[in-house]
Amino acid sequence: MPDSKPPAPFASPGLAHGAAMRRGGPPGPALLRQSFADAVRTLPQVEAISFGTSAEAKGPGGAAIRDAGDLARFFNPFQGEADPRGRPVGGTGTTTINAEVQNYRGDFGTGNHVFEPDGLRLQAKVEAGRFDSYLRGDLTRAQGGFTSNAPGGAVPTRLSDIGLKPSDLDRIQVGDVTTNGPVGLAAVAAMDRAAGTITFDALSGGARANYGGNFHLTFTRFGFAPLEAPAAIEEGKTQEVRLARPLPTSVVPGCLVRGVKRGPQPVNDPRSMAQAVVATISDDRRTVRFDRPLRFGAVLQAADGDGLLFQPGLWSGQIWSKRSYGPQRDGLSAQAIRVEVSFPAMPDDRGMPAYKRADVEVRLKAGAGILWGYWPALWLFTWRPGPNGLGQRIQPNGRNGWAEVDILEIFTRLGTGPSVWTGNLHDQPFERQTVPSPLGGTWRSQPADKRFLTPDAASLLMPKPITDGKRHSFSVLWTRDSVVHYMDDRPICLSQWPLNVTYPHQLGINLACGSLASGNPAALFFPQSQGDAEGQFLTVHSVKSWEA
Question: Domain residues of the chain, as ranges?
Fold first, then answer.
């Protein structure tokens, strides 16, 4: 797609204030003093979608989405990529891209896409297994520490070194998956009651020897077992697997599967490239057949200690627009989008880090009612449109580059909570300017890197939870060199972000339920209980857009 600028680009006060992008610099440009309605007053409205069984089409570009048939006219149930027959094969569609805990279907399933009178509820639903973080231990260096073994290792950890008692072994099963200190995952490989020890296999985050520091060690009902046969899983072909040891009883038909590439130093995140689920388990719990061939995006080898991680069958909802957006499209220079949504009501949570067992227990007790792992997102991602609203997601490092605009993300974990707004821009450097907002809030910092150049304006801690059961709007005004974020029609920040891509963007609205990538497990960024999982939803009320 050619990148030709229109002869008369959209102009609004304050969109080219490079020096002012430095936090603490000159007074904010005019856009940071305007409401969203004032900022888009001169832009033609091209879309006004209302959701719900009582929805009505109103205004320019008006449309009412009252049922799944209406929804399919404007949105896909997955992002971007499809094969020639229209079946989803990639993107965030029916797969996960951040070792997410939930999965998505390739259709608008009624259990995950629920129409209410005034909105479309994207709903998480557990169809197999149970979420249960049932036991927590301490990793105390003074007492010897915690060891998680690379493939071939079998060094045990004493129960007393991880704050457990012999009676705790009655609750633990071989194959149970634990958080591994401050980062990663480990699985119970063996237990010796007489010696009072547990042997752990490192799954991600690296192997550890005599590790301590009073970090928590959380035991979950996720399950892991290394491969026995075939010697390697053939991508897109293998559908039945023989495991080297029996699965824990928490793994049942309907559970989801992720591939774990361990290797000499197990540092890889669990991965999946298809929504394969457990179909049958043999009586000895070592042979598993799946509902479709396995696709993990990597070759899994029995000789390397690679294996499969099983988790409860948690399904969620998402929608991806058939319409394209973005000011980089031919003849355009400005794009505005406003999404009105509501979230479940949760108590306030400051999102302060906690890794020690005692601190974690205090946080969980004080945060009663927090839905751990809650991760709603409104975002735009580059794609190559195709027939019938299908197309291809432009992969990172792919041809012609890629870009992502996060209108909103809420990360409900120990480090951040439901009072924290996040709106990042990927994958080109940007600087951000903020001004005091009538909505209040305090900007939080993160370390600067080559992409994020304003480290003291990373996320916004609001005075009250964003997840309060009420309607809120989240918007962006996006030009070819800037993005302004809004919450409830009030400006939050202006980011200088010269765009260097020509492909258009899809709008995605999805409800993720946490992640097992990197350090997320130790931050409890996944449901801690069945209630945490099934209480998660995101209701979409309207989508409007303007462009010129």
Answer: 69-127+317-547, 132-311
Output b/e per residue, 174-209; b: 16+ Cβ within 10 A.
bbbbbbbbbbbbbbbbebeeeebbbbbbbbbbebbe
Q: Which residues touch 24 (CB under 8 Å, ≥6 apart)?
A: none
Tens of each residue's pLDDT in the chain, 548 residues: 333 343 344 444 444 433 333 333 344 578 898 999 999 999 999 999 999 999 999 999 999 999 999 999 999 887 755 555 555 555 555 565 788 999 988 889 889 999 999 999 999 999 999 999 999 998 877 677 899 999 999 999 999 999 999 999 999 999 999 998 777 899 999 999 999 999 999 999 999 998 888 789 999 999 999 999 888 998 889 999 999 999 999 999 999 999 999 988 898 888 887 779 999 999 999 999 999 999 888 889 999 999 999 999 999 999 999 999 999 999 999 999 999 999 999 998 878 888 889 999 998 988 899 999 999 999 999 888 877 666 666 655 544 578 899 999 999 999 899 999 999 998 888 889 888 777 889 998 877 777 777 878 889 999 999 999 999 999 999 999 999 999 999 999 999 998 888 889 999 999 999 999 988 999 999 999 999 999 999 999 999 999 99
Q: State the architecture of 69-127+317-547 in CATH terms.
A: Sandwich (2.60)
Residue 117 burial (10 A CB sphere; 0-12, 13-18, 19+): exposed
Q: CA 108, CA 123: separation in Å to the nearest integer?
A: 11
Cα separation, 321 vs 327, in Å, equals: 16
Question: Do residues 75 and 320 make contact, with C-beta atoms less than 8 angstroms apart?
Answer: yes
Bridge partner list, 50:
64, 542
